[in-house]
Structure formats: structure tokens, C-alpha cells
Amino acid sequence: MFRHLSFIVKSGLRNRRRSLLTILSIAVSLCLLGVLMAMYRALFLSDEPSPAQALRLIVHHKVSLTVPLITAFEPRIRQMPGVRAVSAYQWFGGTYKDPKNFFARLAVDPEQFFQLKPELEMPDDQKQAFLHLRTGAIAGVTLAKKYDWKVGDRITIVGDIFPFNAELTLVGIYNDPEDTDTLYFNNEYIRQSMHSTDREDQIGAFWVQADTAADVPRVSKEIDDEFANSPYPTKSESEKAFALSFISFLGNLKLFLAAICGAVTFTILLVSANTISMSVRERVREVGILKTLGFTTGNILSIIVGEAVFIAGAGGVLGALFAAFLCDSVRRFPLTAAFFHDLTFSLGVAAAALGVALFIGLVSSLVPAWGAAKTSILDSLRYTG
User: Fold this and answer.
1) Among the listed residues 179, 48, 181, the one whose alpha carbon sits nearest the alpha carbon of residue 116
2) 26 with 63, same domain?
3) Which of 11, 213, 233, 370 has the smallest set of CB atoms within 10 Å of its CB?
4) Structure-model confidence comparison of residues 350 and 249, the more confident one
């Protein structure tokens, strides 16, 4: 095959319009397949959590994330053996200037927050300001850069879940290997703003840190057992499981991704097979001429298969580049960053996508290539279809 590489490339591109359309169709399909494979890997096959993440749990209502717990649970959780820190974990919601400006706005207990997030990097003076200023807020470096925030800026979040507007002062900008797109502020600000209402003593969830990774399963079970018979039963889960619980609203995502990947692969196979069949039918007489010139059946078979693999490979490379760009965009997009911060088009995913492209090129061309290669010289030259 490699002896005839130049001939294979020129022959594969003889009908440039059809070849280009075939390459683009394969590229689009492989792009979709690559993104889906990368999503599957990020959601279900991603690396082990960092040492800090392995210690953290999210405790929320067993029925639904929308059903609140009560703040009275916090001291009871804090007293349990193996618990190092507990913080409020309250989604504020609201709108910043425009409904399109979506990012996570979470109320926490500042002192406990810094214990829970030891990997967070931030100047000490900014940490102290967050600890002592009730209306203080800190933002991730990516979020601050996006909205051109500077320390000292006033940030107003118009309330929707809560019936008041959060008037915050940015006192710090943090860097976190896992999350730089979140705005944190003091949960006490919410409690005082909701003073003398029923919701004053409600909380969306608790952020819990265990002493060691070995304590996490036991702490999780003890928390859920402690409140199992209360009006507010809990469900304790890891940060990754908590993030996946949002995606589970879509249904069996594993099955969906697998089904779509199968459908995409089958579609690419049909496109490639149809193109190769058309190309072979147009060149039956050419096969007879090649045989007359001394090309063997094996030579012709390798040339036709090589053309299909070349076209499929070109589409695969182009699709992989598109997929890498889309994965990077999805990972950076505020609406999806929380769920897909691990989404990367890794070398493994790229190799798998290209492998699928080359395999499809090979499989789709074998039958028509074998039929053409076995045609006799006389039948080839007589062919008029």
C-alpha cells in the first residue's frame, strides 16, 4: 500500500467535490462522537478526586435538592466523630445585570469555608476581609476576569429565590485548581436579611469535611442515619456524585451516550460505504487497465482500501480538531463548567476517535474493493455502467 501512497492520495481526490463533502461529513460525525466520548470519560471515567475533594461531602434533603434542610442540623453534624468542618452550602440564584450572566452564587460560612477548601489560593488580607465583612464576597479568577471585577467593586445580585437583592462588596479574588467560576459570600448575610421569617432557619445543603478519607463512608452513613426519622431526612454524597445528580435529571445518561455513539458510528459507516461504492463503480474499467499494466489483485485491493482509509482518516483528523475545540468551549462555558470542568479531549479519546474513523474506512471499503479487484480484465473493459 505504501508503495502506491502518492497514487492513492491523487486517486482519492480525483473528484474533489465529493471527496471534500465526504471528508466533512465524516469530520462532523467524528466531532460529535469525540465530544460524546470525552463527556462519557469526564462524567463516569474521570481520574480519582484530589486529596482535598476526597474528604468533602454534600449533605442535602433526601427527597430533592429543592427541599431545604434546617440550620439546627449543623451543630449536630459538627459533633459527630470524624467531622472536621461544616459549612452552609446555599444556592442564592438571582440575576447579575442580565439573565444571560449565569454563574454559581453560593453562600457559605467563611471561617469553615477556608478549612473546607485548603487548595484555594488567595492573599491573607483578602481572606481576613472575607472573614470579617458581612457583605464581603470572593470570586474565582476566571469569573472576575470575565466581568472585569476588581477588589473593592460593588456587586448587586437581584434576588429571585430569596426576596431581596444581595448588595455585595468584592473583597478577594481566588484561584482554585478545580473551580474559578464561582462567587462566594457570607451566609450570615442571607440569614440577617431573612430575619423574622420562616426561611431564616432553612438551608439548602451542608458542606462537610471529614478528618480522613477513610472516615468519609462512615460519616456519610452516620449523618443520614441521624436524620432518617426526622421531617428532614438527608442524603450525603461526594462532590462528584452531587454534580452528577443534576445530570441524572436527564435520565440514564450512560445509555443515551452509548446509543448516540452507536448511531453516529453506523451513520459514518453508511456514508463511507456509499461513497466508496460509487467510486468503485465509476472505476471498473480503470481496474482492467491497471491489471493490464501489471497491477496484481492485491495491489488493486490495497489501493482502493487505502483511498477509503485516507479519506476517513482525513475526516477523523479534522473531526478530532473540531472536537477538541468544542470540549474546550464546553469546559469554559459558565452553564456547563460546574459539570464538565474535567472535560478534555485527551490523547486517549483522540486515538479512539481516529481508530473508529480508520476502522470504518477499512470495513466500508473491503467488500467493493474485493469485488473490483477480483473482476477479470475482459469484464472490466466491457463494463459500461
Assistant:
1) 179
2) no
3) 213
4) 350
